[in-house]
Amino acid sequence: MAKKFEKGKMVPVPSRSIIPERDLDKSPILECSHLGIDFGGLRAVDDFNLTIGRTEIAGLIGPNGAGKTTVFNLLTKVYQPTRGTILLDGFDTAGKTTAQINRMGIARTFQNIRLFSNLSVEDNVKVGLHNQEKYSALTGVLRLPKYWRQEKAAHERALELLSIFDMQDLAPHKAGSLPYGAQRRLEIVRALATNPSLLLLDEPAAGMNPSETAELMENIVKIRDTFQIAVLLIEHDMNLVMGICEGICVLNFGRVIAKGTSEEIQANPAVIEAYLGKKRGS
What we know:
Elements: E1 10-12, E2 18-20, E3 30-39, E4 42-52, E5 57-61, H1 68-75, E6 83-88, E7 91-92, H2 98-104, E8 106-108, H3 121-128, H4 137-142, H5 145-162, H6 180-192, E9 198-202, H7 210-227, E10 230-234, H8 238-244, E11 247-252, E12 255-260, H9 262-266, H10 269-276
Helix pairs in contact: 3-5, 3-6
């Protein structure tokens, strides 16, 4: 029997969205208003609105081609929006680059794993720690004491992050030699290494068996609780989405067709028709 996770009570906020009650005394980590992007004459995403609480686990779901990954690309500035506003921790992200957005607090994983396969597991995590290095290029070239102190700190931090998934013993192994599920977990650890306030997970359970997925669910909750950050995930595994997501946003043809709790989404006729391809009761 699948483990049940305790979710926060969702309450309305002035932006006509809902966030966990525990986050009411804090400003939302993400606010998207009337966000959209056009590719030629195609409106890939249109009038997308979403608010995420500071420690919320949120889900973005919809049929294939609904625009979910495009939203992730807008949030991380892989694409610049045609219209609309993205506020991250209250700051407008207009004109920012992908690297700047990462430093502001958004980290992500991808549908297709993007690890440095020939580097060690530990070095992949250290890549994520690069934006926290505080020594000059000359210090690094000359291997001055400050360099070695920070290298030691990076080593310890990498092992600490790997221990979230009990992967610390794999630190010296090549990333490309890991099983598929372990590579997915490593990508999440590398994202966490950038010290995000919002973690975007693009189909984190893809290719995982039910046991691995159940473990992943526990670890996503653990990550939220340990780091006190928000998580937004795209996922087709509805057991995972309904099991841990507090607020869920449903996209279809680039537009939001429903937002609500897992119970509300499961009972929404428009979602059932669009997502499952059939009308309720048919």
